[in-house]
Amino acid sequence: MKKLILLTLLLSTAYHCFAQSKKNTVKYTAIKPVGVIKNLSDSALLDVVQRQTFRYFWDFAHPVSGMALERSNEAFDYGGEVVTTGGTGFGIMAMIVAVDRKWIPREQAVDRMLHMVKFLSKADAYHGVFPHWLNGATGKIIPFGRKDDGGDLVETSFLFQGLLTAKQYYNGTSQKEEELRNRIGWLWSEIEWDWYTHERDNLYWHWSPNNGWAMNFPIRGFNECLITYVLAASAERYPVDAARIYNRGWAQSDFFKNGKSFYGIKLPLGFDYGGPLFFSHYSFLGLNPQGLKDQYADYWEQNVNHTRINYAYCVDNPKKFKGYGENCWGLTASDNHEGYNAHSPTNDLGVITPTAALSAFPYTPKESMKALRHFYYGLGDKIWGEYGFVDAFNESKNWYAKSYLAIDQGPIVVMIENHRSGLLWNLFMRAPEIQGGLKKLGFESPAIKSN
After folding, report:
1. How far is CA 183 from CA 63, 167, 189, 399, in A?
2. What is the DSSP string of 325-372?
3. Distance CA 94, CA 104 (A)
4. What are the pLDDT digits (tens) for 380-418?
5. Global pTM?
6. I need a labelling partner for 258 at 20 to 30 A (CA). Which of 1, 77, 104, 158 fits?
7. Alpha-carbon span 330 to 311, nearest angstrom
8. What are phi and psi of 204, to 5 degrees?
């Protein structure tokens, strides 16, 4: 009981100090939610959806750290203080969109960013790598599993995809923006990528001071983790033999190359039917797949075809789930009527997840717009809320989520913006760190400078 009282006092004090800090420096502009608005043009509808979805990372951020809360509801017995490392990276990129579209003032975004990176500089990390979850008030690790109580290299990669993009965007000469860039650079330089090879030909997802390499999870095969290898290749202070671990590790598994066709559409890489759609989103929030090629694939073809297969499957609807069709599609990982699952054509439970189709805007703009209009006008009374669209729904079960998840909301804002302006792609691909990493791995891209 004494420990509980002490923890309550600490959290209360931390929250009070953060609130006072905001009061004494800058008052953050709140974004008011809106209901369903009739007769919007496509462009206006995209504005409304991006803006309201961004509220998750601005108005709903953790009150102490400013980081992104894992989800809007408490679930799975892990409490309400959980902030997500990767979801925060997505939120940082969404914040850049909000500044660029003038939904929030640049100075306020810089203040929020500075607060977050200062928090991260004192938070638990393991050889420079952050855990999957942190306590947003204390910066201490919240284990993701019994043995997953250390560094998470993939979640850290999603975080730094956002931080390196921010380092490019906040390029002003003010003391705050210079400090922000420096602090991001310090955090970036402390990641020991070479440690996470486990002295082998692979990057490994986890390491724990309590359990060592017990998780034994090599990062390989085509999935959401391409960004991890690109960032590892970009490192300077703790470098890896980039080409060796990329070719002998990442590209060597029985679920890397595919080459088969599904619904008459060729899939270069990955699982049959492509797997959940977040494979074509998470690494590509900053990494621009347009014209991006290596010896294994054209990544624009990969992502477009993966999405088209997912769409074709939903239109075909072989399991005859209610609601599926050309206006209602998109299978990916999300909450569902049973808990949580990674939905895909080979793991179809009748659950449509809005982020799947909406984060696919760059790849299937017409099909994604049809889905967006149906979600907003056809189902808006059931799935539109204060942070955009709820996480998922299953019309066969008459189930509609009440929850929002950071890792699903963030890609909606970012990938719609990449479809509209290419903003995040342009920023990330210009980063000198990334230019060097892509060259080391043998990638081709119009964004890679020759010198």
Report:
1. 21, 9, 10, 44
2. BTTB----EEEETTEEEE-BTTB--S-B-HHHHHTTTTT-HHHHHHHH
3. 11
4. 999 999 999 999 999 999 999 999 999 999 999 999 999
5. 0.94
6. 158
7. 7
8. -115, 140
